[in-house]
Amino acid sequence: MSCCPLDAVGYLAADHTDEGTVRSVDGISYYQIGSGPNGLLFCPDVWGWNGGRTRAIADDFAKMGVSVWVPKLLPAFEGGTDGDGLPPSYDIKNRTDLPDLFKGEWNQDKVVPKLLSVIKAMKSAGVKKIGLIGFCYGAWLGMYVAGSIPAEQLICAVGAHPSIVAGESGVGKDPIALSAKSNCPWMFFPCGDPNAGGMVEGPEYDVGGKLFETLEAKFPGRNRTRRFREMTHGFVTRGLIVGDKGQETAVAIRDVVKDVEAFFQSHSLRPSVASQCWPCSGLLKLFRSAA
Q: Most distant CA pair in the chain: distance in Å?
């Protein structure tokens, strides 16, 4: 059992200049940027709080006018990446350590309380309404969070190449029952062929799929899903935007970012005062110039 299919994108080194700061609460470090009553909680993938373009995306979302928080959640495996999650050298296609990690120190029972501590800090900092975005494994964690805090606090959530079904099923639990506990609507960005089998994001995330329709039953008309069939699991945070398929990947990431912004805005998570526009943001400029 893994949270990622065999063809998942591997490690991507961060090459972004951080615009935020590192702080801590209850012994939990987090990267933070932005301010205001609307907050965004990142649930990173298995390479943690400083892998790939995680912080670049966080900095860009802060330009939307929200307070963004990216916690360091996972006890480092073999040193991790910046002390969190998997190390850069980890071969996710050929190694088999993840099942034991998910049943041990990376289990939701151990990690979700850390997220709840960060949420408490967000509220202490003046955040009134929270949106959540989870990548891969982080979306699985996010679904647990969505069932743990009330609807008036967690307004909506997003799962990019989500591992909710693969992760929950892999530890012998029911992902549909888990999603039924969510206190907020979701937007999903699954990728690949839904009928490919294995760990690929299956039809459960699509319109008509069991997971999506379970959320629709609770929040009619408020959930969204968009499948990127030509993209590989992990593309948003780790996909290369140079070389073969680089431009295609860059465009897909840009589309995800813009769709997430629109989804948050539709749930009143964007301030009414005009903030820096997305076409002016550094991340989208980078995507426009990708090879």
A: 49
Query: Residues 39-68: what's their mean pLDDT?
Result: 96
Under 8 Å CB-to-CB from 184, ≥6 apart: which residues? 146, 151, 154, 155, 156, 157, 219
H helix count then E strand count, the chain: 10, 8
C-alpha 208/C-alpha 79 separation (Å) is: 42
**Cα-Cα-Cα-Cα dihedral sign, residues 7, 8, 11, 14:** positive
Integer Cα distance of 289 and 199 in angstroms? 33
Residue 281 pLDDT class (50, 70, 90 cuts)? very low
**Phi/psi at 189 (nearest 5 deg)?**
-125, 75
Alpha-carbon distances of 81 from 78, 96, 186, 210, 241, rounded to whole Å: 9, 18, 29, 35, 21
Structure tokens at 176: 């549909």
Distance CA 30, CA 82 (A): 12
pLDDT tens digit sequence for 58-90: 999 999 899 999 999 999 999 999 999 999 999
Q: Is the pTM of this model over 0.90?
A: yes
Residue 34: phi, psi to the nearest 5? 95, 175
- Phi and psi for 152 in degrees, rounded to 5? -70, -10
Q: What span, in angstroms and rounded, lies between the C-alpha atoms of 169 and 250? A: 31
Positive or negative, the Cα torsion across 17, 290, 47, 102? Answer: positive
Cα separation, 107 vs 159, whole angstroms: 18
Kindly report the number of other CB atoms within 10 A of residue 103's CB atom.
14
Residue 23 and residue 29: Cα distance in Å, rounded? Answer: 6
- What is the distance between the alpha carbons of residues 239 and 12, in angstroms, rounded to a whole number? 7
Q: Which two tokens stand for residue 154?
A: 């967690």
Contact 99, 1 (CB under 8 A): yes
